[in-house]
Every structure is written in structure tokens, then in C-alpha cells.
Recover the amino acids of this structure.
């Protein structure tokens, strides 16, 4: 609908046909009947929704009442196995985006806009005060900020291999986290595949929010050549994801746990990678996260038939969150 977007002064995003055709083949086969309605959401940005994650370091009482007036409600409820009282996120049933806050030097932002499904990996990780935490692929930083809304880690190591993205990560941290705390965060640009060897058995919790096919943004690639190249290189992503996970397992202390997440529907990058890890690493066990999924099932739509240690959020109209794959493992 060109009219609506004209009103906002932005040209309508164009669907990249090459990517859509590729997804069409793969996802119709993998997801069956569910794919048609998922496709309708992914290809129609006007129905997308954005959650508002409040920043506890810059709390404003007006913000919560403004959100309530605009019809927002808390995304997560007390029935969750893990929900720190300091962690507050609001969502609305209707599409659209709360206004973005501009970066102001020396002033912390009051909230972060994001896909509500991207908070599920953080809730699955269950970080507690004093634990040593590694966010292995941390940019742009939304999940790092969310972890710090939940608890105060002993050590917090945020890593991002890509130079440009790591600058983005640093800016996010500066926009949301106050001075004394920022000094406790170590930001590095190491190759995530090598961190396990460089920092063996150093962390209680590791988040691997892996580089993946970003279904939502790939569908709107404006550069056909870049899109085609992405689709060719897509086959190599699963081996990178596997290596990142192996590295993360080495970096974990025995008894520690890790959460793996992606923002793709692709089975090759999701359950296949986790199954490969479970079959090849004798020192990891799957962790049941079905209680968490059950507790949020009124706000999120999940693929049925997944195993207890994993979930896949499927976007649908009115609950346009995801795609987001989450799996949890524990090191023995």
C-alpha cells in the first residue's frame, strides 16, 4: 500500500524476488501449511510490531503511563520460570512503532525498540547476579542490554567480530548503560570460533546469537547481486554456527549453560546445528525450555513438534514476532 507509507514520507520497501523464490521452495517444504501465513507477515512491513524494552538505568514513570494510554501491555508475566522484576517490556496488539529516541551524548536512552521474540533467548539464559557471562556475537547490542536489565553479572564479556558492528555495539552500550557499569563490560572483536581456546571454562552462561540468514531483512535486499551472493553463501552458515557453538561450549564452566538463537526459520541453521552438537559433543545435554514457551504462548506463536530444548517463533498477524529460534544446552 503505497499511500500509507507516503504519509510517513518513506518509499515502500521492495520485496526481493530472488530471495522470496528461494524461501518459497525451502519453507513451503519445511513448514508446510504454516508458511503461507508467515510469508504474508514477513512480506508486509505495515503489519510488523515492535516491543518497547524499558531501561531500568533511566526509569521514567511517565513513559509507563504513556505506553498504557497508547494501548501497550506487559509482554511477559509472572508465570515464567525466570522473570526479574527489573525486566520490563511492553507490546501492543496493533502494528506500528513507538517513536525512536535519538542518541544524545551524556544522556541515557529510556527504552530500546526490538522484536519481542529476541528477548526469549535472554529469558532462557536465566542470568543471575554475579555470574560470568559471555555474549559471543553481541552486536547490535539489544540482547546485551536486555541481560543487564535482568541481573548484574560478575564479568560481562560482549564480543563482536565484525568491525563496523562492534562500533554499533559500543554505541548501544553507551546509550543504555551508566558509567560505573560500563567499566565492568569487556567489549572485544575476537573471532568467536577461537574464544573457547582463548578463554576456556571461564563463563557460567554463554549466549550465541549466531550470524544467520536474516529472513526478515533479506526479503527486502535492495541489491540483487548481494542477495544472490547471500543465498549462495547461506549453505556455509551452518558450519560457522556449529564452530561458534563448539567454541562456546569450551568457554563454559562445567555446570554452565548456553543459549543458541537465530532469526531464521531455516532448519539447517536451527535444529540441524543443535542436533549435530548434541551428537558430537558428549559433554553437553539439552535443557527443557517448554515451561518458558508455555508461559508466553498467548503472545507468541510457536512451531509445533519441536523438541523440549528448543522453540521456533513463527510470525502471524497480530503477533508478528519472530522468526526466532531458541535452544538451550548445559555443559556437564
Amino acid at each position: 500500500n503505497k499511500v500509507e507509507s507516503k504519509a510517513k514520507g518513506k518509499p515502500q520497501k521492495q520485496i526481493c524476488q530472488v530471495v522470496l523464490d528461494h524461501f518459497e521452495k525451502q519453507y513451503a517444504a519445511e513448514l508446510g501449511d504454516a508458511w503461507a501465513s508467515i510469508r504474508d507477515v514477513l512480506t508486509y512491513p505495515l503489519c510488523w510490531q515492535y516491543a518497547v524494552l524499558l531501561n531500568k538505568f533511566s526509569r521514567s514513570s511517565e513513559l509507563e503511563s504513556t505506553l498504557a494510554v497508547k494501548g501497550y501491555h506487559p509482554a511477559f508475566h509472572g508465570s515464567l520460570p525466570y522473570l526479574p522484576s527489573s525486566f520490563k517490556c511492553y507490546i501492543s496488539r496493533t502494528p506500528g512503532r513507538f517513536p525512536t529516541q535519538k542518541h544524545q551524548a551524556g544522556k541515557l536512552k529510556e527504552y530500546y525498540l526490538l522484536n519481542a521474540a529476541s528477548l526469549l533467548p535472554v529469558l532462557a539464559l536465566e542470568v543471575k547476579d554475579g555470574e560470568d557471562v559471555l555474549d559471543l556475537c553481541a552486536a547490535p547490542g539489544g540482547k546485551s542490554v536486555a541481560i543487564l536489565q535482568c541481573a548484574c553479572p560478575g564479568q560481562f564479556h560482549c564480543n563482536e567480530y565484525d568491525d563496523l558492528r562492534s562500533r554499533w555495539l559500543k554505541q548501544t552500550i553507551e546509550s543504555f548503560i551508566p558509567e560505573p557499569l560500563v567499566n565492568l563490560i569487556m567489549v572485544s572483536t575476537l573471532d568467536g570460533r577461537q574464544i573457547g581456546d582463548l578463554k576456556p571454562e571461564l563463563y557460567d552462561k554463554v549466549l550465541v546469537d549466531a550470524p544467520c540468514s536474516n529472513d526478515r531483512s533479506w526479503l527486502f535486499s535492495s541489491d540483487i547481486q548481494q542477495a544472490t551472493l547471500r543465498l549462495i553463501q547461506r549453505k556455509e552458515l551452518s558450519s560457522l554456527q556449529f564452530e561458534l557453538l563448539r567454541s562456546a561450549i569450551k568457554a563454559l564452566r562445567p555446570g554452565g549453560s548456553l543459549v543458541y538463537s537465530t532469526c531464521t526459520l531455516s532448519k539447517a541453521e536451527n535444529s540441524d546445528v543443535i542436533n549435530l552438537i548434541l551428537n558430537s559433543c558428549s559433554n553437553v545435554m539439552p535443557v527443557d525450555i517448554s515451561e518458558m514457551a508455555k508461559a508466553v504462548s498467548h503472545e507468541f506463536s510457536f512451531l509445533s513438534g519441536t523438541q523440549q530444548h528448543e522453540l521456533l517463533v513463527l510470525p502471524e498477524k497480530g503477533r508478528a514476532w519472530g522468526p526466532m529460534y531458541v535452544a538451550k544446552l548445559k555443559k556437564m
